[in-house]
UniProtKB/TrEMBL annotation:
GO molecular function: ATPase-coupled transmembrane transporter activity
Domain SsuA/THI5-like: 54-259
Protein name: ABC transporter substrate-binding protein
Location, primary (coarse class): periplasm
Native source organism of the sequence: Limnofasciculus baicalensis BBK-W-15
Lineage: Bacteria, Bacillati, Cyanobacteriota, Cyanophyceae, Coleofasciculales
Database matches in Pfam families: NMT1
PANTHER family hit by this protein: ALIPHATIC SULFONATES-BINDING PROTEIN-RELATED, TAURINE-BINDING PERIPLASMIC PROTEIN
């Protein structure tokens, strides 16, 4: 009898303890250091042919996503603009995009957030011209191939504005970047606004040369990892894992340069020697560079300042109707968490 009574009391105690524990409010997480995925479905992530984004191929082949406990379905896009449209249409959870293209998407109603700076273009975006064109002024009336609405269109307009010209002073030929490079080599257009690795293709035309590049406009073309706001709200641990994977990938590339170059050049469709030429035209951002970029500033090296300038420029050129709300465009919590850990 005593045993049954003791057992009953024990059961009552354990049951009461379980209720007490279950009713205790859970403490909010102070950061996103955990790499445990909130869901098991893979992140749909897009990337395309740009030296600052190709390291994601290294992350995939070296299983660095898995090392950070995040499932990623990495999708390659031959056309950069297609990846932008896919994210805006809800077909992707994350994508690699430039600042101006992300602002354009937000102006159109997309809910997107920049969580990481991959790089700054320092020469790999170029305006390449045929023989006989020596100055930006010589572009007046010429046929220029460019993927309308992309970063190289933006660069072209920056150059024209600097020379006192506008888009109406030239003949814009709307062409996907790879097609623009091929059309230029075939002699169908006078100039092409292209980015690496398509610059290598365009420069195969005899007598062709670089007229100006992103090197002439420092900080104007930052490249990012962009995620949907839904991803941040529902799967912050996975966003953190993506950011962690990026920096782990940079560490791997530093320790394994030959193997990494082989992966990068193969994905870009060029030789290792050709790929090495892209290094000077792309500044890959370290964690310190990221922290600085996300900080307030008064020049194009600060993302908040650059976003305001780019937004005004896009409105001025009527690429967007009105300037969007940029207050929620950047989220630096993930790079800060990586830095702290």
């Amino acid at each position: 009898m005593k045993i049954r009574k003791l057992l009953s009391l024990l059961i009552i105690f354990v049951f009461g303890l379980a209720i007490a524990v279950s009713c205790t409010p859970s403490q909010p997480t102070s950061n996103y250091a955990s790499t445990t995925p909130a869901k098991t479905s893979p992140i749909q992530m897009g990337f395309s042919a740009w030296p600052g984004w190709l390291p994601w191929q290294v992350a995939q082949e070296e299983k660095l996503f898995a090392a950070n406990k995040v499932k990623v379905d990495l999708k390659w896009f031959d056309g950069y603009l297609d990846s932008i449209n896919a994210l805006a249409a809800g077909q992707l959870d994350a994508n690699t995009q430039t600042l101006n293209d992300t602002i354009s998407s937000i102006a159109a109603g997309a809910e997107q957030v920049i969580v990481l700076v991959n790089d700054n273009s320092t020469g790999n975006d170029k305006i390449i011209v045929r023989d006989g064109i020596k100055t930006i002024g010589d572009l007046k009336g010429k046929r220029i191939g460019v993927e309308v609405g992309t970063v190289d269109h933006f660069l072209l307009l920056l150059g024209l504005k600097k020379a006192g010209l506008s888009a109406t002073d030239v003949q814009i030929q709307p062409l996907e970047t790879g097609i623009a490079a091929a059309a230029f080599v075939a002699g169908q257009i006078d100039a092409a606004a292209v980015f690496a690795p398509f610059t290598t293709k365009a420069l195969q035309r005899p007598g062709s040369k670089e007229l100006f590049s992103s090197k002439d406009f420092p900080g104007a073309i930052p490249d990012h990892l962009v995620v949907t706001r839904k991803m941040i709200e529902e799967r912050p641990q996975d966003v953190q894992a993506l950011v962690n994977t990026w920096f782990d990938t940079l560490d791997f590339m530093k320790k394994n340069p030959e193997k990494s170059l082989s992966i990068l050049s193969k994905r870009a469709g060029v030789s290792v020697q050709e790929y090495k030429q892209y290094d000077a035209g792309t500044k890959i951002f370290t964690i310190q560079d990221n922290l600085k970029a996300f900080s307030p500033g008064k020049d194009m090296h600060s993302l908040s300042y650059a976003a305001q300038e780019v937004s005004k420029f896009l409105v001025e050129l009527k690429l967007i109707k009105t300037a969007p709300d940029l207050t929620k465009l950047f989220d630096d919590r993930f790079v800060k968490t990586y830095s702290q850990n």
